[in-house]
Amino acid sequence: MEKMLNERRDWVNEKRGQNLGKVPEDCKGFYDRLNVEAPLSPEEEAARAGEEDEAAAKKGKKKEKKKEGKKKKGKKDKDDDGKPQTINIGPSEIV
């Protein structure tokens, strides 16, 4: 336990020297420096790349579905019968 305490003190003193005498706010960096991931084997890298590709494909499909679901609403140029829509301009027929 004293060994780790001394290591932490050394780390704090080192950071103080780098930061012009300012003490680090937390010791998270001290513990994170030891958490290094082991390199992956070629088979594990291939499996991970395959999973990432599948996730990207699923995400792309979701975006396509959203685009298909959304239709722009605008003015219709034709009636339901297929004839051009008439536009009334000017005074109404009642006047």
Can you walk through the features of this model?
- This protein is mainly α and 95 residues long.
- The chain has three helices and no strands.
- The model has no long low-confidence stretch (mean pLDDT 78).
Count all strands and give the number.
Answer: 0
**Shape descriptor:** elongated
Oligomer: single chain
What integer value in Å does the Rg equal?
34 Å
Measured by DSSP, the beta-strand proportion falls in under 5%
Structural class: mainly alpha
Mean pLDDT: 78
Indicate the low-confidence ranges by residue numbers.
Answer: none
What is the chain-wise order of helices and strands? Answer: HHH
Total number of helices = 3
Largest sheet: none
Helical proportion, percent range? 40-55%
Distance between the termini: 99 Å
At a glance:
The chain is an all-alpha fold and 95 residues long. It contains three helices and no strands. The chain has a domain at 2-52.
Secondary-structure topology with pairs:
Blueprint: H1 2-18, H2 28-32, H3 42-69
Key phrases:
95 residues; mainly alpha; elongated
